[in-house]
Amino acid sequence: MSSNAKLSKAEYTVEDTYIIDTIKVSTIKFKVPLNHSNLNSHGLNTSPKIDVYIKLVNNYKPDSRQPREFNFHKDIQNNSSNLIVFLQGGPGFPTDIPTSRSTPAFLGKLLDKNYTVVLLDQRGTGLSTPIDTKKLVSLGDPQSQLDYILNFRADSIVWDCETIRKTLIPNYKWSLLGQSYGGFTSITYASFYPDSLKQILLTGGLPPLGHSVDDVYDKTYQRTLERNEAYYSRYPQDVERVKIIVQYLAENQPELPNGVACIGLASLFANYK
Known about the structure:
The protein is built from 9 helices and 7 strands. With 273 residues, it is of the alpha/beta class. It folds into 2 domains: 11-202, Rossmann fold, CATH 3.40.50; 213-269, no CATH class. It is globular, with a radius of gyration of 23 Å. The model has no long low-confidence stretch (mean pLDDT 86).
């Protein structure tokens, strides 16, 4: 993947703003290109637009002397240098709709540190334009369907984020919190637009930089064997049970609902004595 996209500010609408206890949430819809790198000879993007939503979460201090304001522009202006974007795992998972400082669980801790939290429904998830069967069938042949799905990778998510940043806080950097797949996406973001980021916080999903995926899996295989030995030393009665299960899998070769054979599981335990 490469950052061969020409980004500009996006049209957006504030769909809703609500206050619950000590948080204020604005739900904002952005119109972004399906394919950020689909440029014509004049350098203009001719791709159709899709919807990408964010939930912008701020601290709210109830005060009977002050009106309950619903101006998210003011919220951003008051904290422009301290926005953090949560990039969730998956791919395919939406972000939570905040209903308290503990939904999602990390929200309160970030708000306590005076962050304005941006919960992104990555394209294809949550409130954003989905990938559904009706849409794929309407595209016709498999190649057209594949071409469409390829617009929902990490590079497109990064371009969405950078478009939103340029729209909301063009003169400021923001931070990232990447969880699992969001960690991979965060590293992609850093490789595309390092000057747009203050910091990256990862809770998993660090790609094997400088190593192949096979190198990483080789380490996990050894770790799995060690954990198996520890488990069997604590629960020796399960050794015979596992052997029975492995024998059944090897002899009957059952299939999972998606048609994948379970025989591979048997091979993992075949050499265990």
